[in-house]
Amino acid sequence: MVPTKQKEIHLANRPKGMPTNDDFEFVEQDIPTLEENQVLLRTLYLSVDPYMRGRMQDAKSYIAPFQLHKAIVGGGIAEVVESRSEKFKQGDIVTGSLKWAEYSRMSDQKVRKIDPASAPVTTHLGILGMTGLTAYFGLLDIGKPQPGETVVVSGAAGAVGSAVGQIAKIKGTRVVGIAGSDEKIAFLKEELGFDEAVNYKKETFAEDLANAVPNGVDVYFDNVGGPVTDEVFKLLNTNARIPLCGAISSYNKEEDLGPRLQSYMIKTSALMKGFTVGNYAADFENGSKQLAAWLQEGKLKYEETIVEGFDKTPDAFLDLFKGTNIGKLLVKVADPEYAKL
Amino acid sequence: MVPTKQKEIHLANRPKGMPTNDDFEFVEQDIPTLEENQVLLRTLYLSVDPYMRGRMQDAKSYIAPFQLHKAIVGGGIAEVVESRSEKFKQGDIVTGSLKWAEYSRMSDQKVRKIDPASAPVTTHLGILGMTGLTAYFGLLDIGKPQPGETVVVSGAAGAVGSAVGQIAKIKGTRVVGIAGSDEKIAFLKEELGFDEAVNYKKETFAEDLANAVPNGVDVYFDNVGGPVTDEVFKLLNTNARIPLCGAISSYNKEEDLGPRLQSYMIKTSALMKGFTVGNYAADFENGSKQLAAWLQEGKLKYEETIVEGFDKTPDAFLDLFKGTNIGKLLVKVADPEYAKL
After folding, report:
1. Residue from the list A256, A266, A274 with its beta carbon closest to the beta carbon of B246
2. Given this model, what pLDDT does residue B59 score?
3. Looking at the domain assignment, is residue A339 inside a domain?
4. Residue limits of the Enoyl reductase (ER) domain (chains A, B) (predicted)?
5. Looking at this predicted complex, what is its ipTM?
């Protein structure tokens, strides 16, 4: 039964530097009644992702900023608990851009049904969702890895990075991951089949990285920016390609100075391209099919870190910047009431 | 008549920071005798170019470093004064990579004949040579300017930059040049037909630049790097393209720190690619023909700054970094003995 009140999480302040719990506010709201062609959703899982930090600033970007004192919005999985749409019935599982809320009312145009029998529903927030597609398109369209080349990926134990490395292996390259703990290094090499993995927190990082890429770097898939990236640039081969996916090391800095990297790119005729997964929307279906096929064939593995409880959503988001999680970081909000997962 | 002795200019030290006259040494040498398939060349003009600063360092790059206590080598125009080659006769005018020397002996495979009747010989070191081809291929292959877009070029009054802006105008774009003196600004707007030109040495540079690109920046052809580039990045449009040709602002710095620019590229899905003209060697002939056609049609203009006297070659090179010259900077070494220019 649907209650009459629910909680939402709103953006209380635009954070300066590292966000804190004070930047979020929990607000009690009435659960809205439905209009024609709308569904009422009970949130099951919420995705927390580094790019959301950017939306907390009031700055021009590829996606509009979050509004102050309005609900934060991100990827989620939900169950349809009431429907005034012909497209959905009670108990359907859907995914889409959801409010950080226990319940939400949405147009039936804004969510997509998923089949809980074909793969665990959480994969639609990870390896089969935006995360996997980000890895897939950035690596293949910009990185264009060729068999025998060396691919380096930073943030390698994260959701996108771990998919990038595995897809690069499928494409026949030598894959080197960069991550920040011995546990992550072991995960990359032993669980995901990376050829090498290097811990950027060690004093010997620059040397370790150089040793891990005896033939230089042909593709650098960058999730982090900052000093890690500075070291990779010294090792670029001629005609290197750099898909620029994220720069998590700088998201919480008001000012971020580093050595200018253009000279490395001139010397090597390197190509660097920023991208967001939305650039490839027209090809999502093909990408998702390929990822699902690799998943079924056992060529792609994924790891999830699931935090329990809606109230922990801000904490889970803040954890992203601590570098402790492995794989996709999710919040489990509720079990479904009608469906069986 | 060929003398028996001549002067060469050698690299005396690998400069740290800004080069000085002490980094060059003048060495007297015997003029070598010819072997089969060689020509003896009397140097007429030498080109001084910013990229040569890179060759003075002992660092891996797209081109081998100059050797210490050996002659510096760069683009030049010469007259054949003796020939043991069937391909060349006395009085032919040729271009190629020449020693900084009054005379040099070269294989007939390493120089190319030019026709002094079709265009002034110095254009083969500038608008019809590597300079023009650098502008042509970097702008068109990487920048891909579309009619109505805004193209910004830094180092705009230099040899490459002034060609870039004019080619961008031919392609129907709005062209904004960045340069460092009021004289250069006037040259760009009044002589070369740039839509706007902005002086980066003014305190109001950031504001002036923003005002000059009301529709943002679609293509940024970068010759300079550094703080000028930092301001341009703030104005990039979605899907901006950045041909990365040079970074003259950093060539004489041991360390060059600046704000990390990757976040701008992620937000705009921008593409940046380093290049050197040699990447396009297979297409030089087509490029040269197009440039020559535009020159004859009066669509391309060029400016030269010619320094007189072989002994002034190091000074001319050092002048490149003072930002005073307009257009292509050349040294006139001698008049021809047999040919008429």
Report:
1. A266
2. 80
3. no
4. 19-331
5. 0.90
Give yes or no: residues A139 and A110 share one domain: no
| Count of domains for chain A | 2
- Whether residue B262 and residue A229 make contact (CB cut-off 8 A), yes or no, is yes
Q: What is the pLDDT of residues B54-98, one digit of tens each?
A: 899 888 777 889 999 999 999 999 999 999 999 999 999 999 999
Of B62, B272, B273, the CB nearest to A267: B62
Instruction: Indicate the helix (H) or strand (E) that contains B96.
Output: strand B93-99
Residues of A with CB under 8 A from a CB of B: 54, 60-62, 222, 225-226, 229, 238, 244-247, 250, 255-260, 262-276, 279
Give CA–CA dist A266/A49, Å, rounded: 33
**B339 within some domain:** no
Say whether both B88 and B143 belong to one domain. no
Optimal mutation site among A252, A262, A267, interface B, most CBs of chain B within 10 A:
A262
pLDDT along chain A (341 residues), means of 10: 90 94 96 94 96 88 89 97 97 96 96 92 94 97 98 96 98 98 96 97 98 98 97 98 93 87 95 96 93 95 95 96 89 94 84
Same domain, A92 and A218: no
CA distance B274 to chain A (A): 4
Please report the DSSP string for B192-233 in residue order.
S--SEEEETTSTTHHHHHHHH-TT-EEEEEBSS-HHHHHHHH
Q: Which of B246, B263, B274 sits opposite A250 (nearest CB)?
A: B263
Domain presence at residue A341: no
Same domain, yes or no: A24 and A53: yes
Same domain, A108 and A138: no
Give helix B226-233 / helix B205-212 axis angle, nearest 10°.
50
Q: Do A274 and B270 touch (CB under 8 A)?
A: yes
| Radius of gyration over every alpha carbon of chain A, rounded to an integer in angstroms | 21
Q: Which of A221, A129, A233, A230 is nearest to A176 (CA)?
A: A221
Task: Compute the half-sphere exposure of residue B256: CA atoms within 13 Å on the CB side of its CA.
Answer: 19
CATH code at position B22? 3.90.180.10
Q: Is residue A307 part of a domain?
A: yes
The closest alpha carbon to B228, from B243, B250, B251, B211, belongs to B250
> Quick one: which H or E segment has residue A5?
strand A5-11
Contact yes or no for A266 and B260 at CB 8 A: no
Residues A236 and A142 placed together within one structural domain of the fold = yes
Per-residue model confidence as pLDDT tens digits over B123-135: 999 999 999 999 9
Q: Which domain holds residue A152?
A: 130-280+288-294
Residues of B with CB under 8 A from a CB of A: 54, 60-62, 222, 225-226, 229, 238, 244-247, 250, 255-260, 262-276, 279
Cβ–Cβ gap B262/A275 under 8 Å? no
Flag if B257 and A260 touch (Cβ within 8 Å). Answer: yes
Check whether residue A251 and residue A317 sit in a common domain.
no
State which H helix or E strand residue A79 sits in.
strand A73-83
Q: How many Å lie between the alpha carbon of B232 and the closest alpha carbon of chain A?
A: 14
In angstroms, the Cα distances linking B177 to A199, B209, B220 are 44, 9, 10
Q: Are residues A115 and A225 in the same domain?
A: no
Q: Which residue has tokens 């081969």?
A: A237
B155-182 pLDDT, tens digit each? 999 999 999 999 999 999 999 999 999 9
pLDDT of B341 > 90? The answer is: no
Retrieve residue B286's tokens.
């087509």
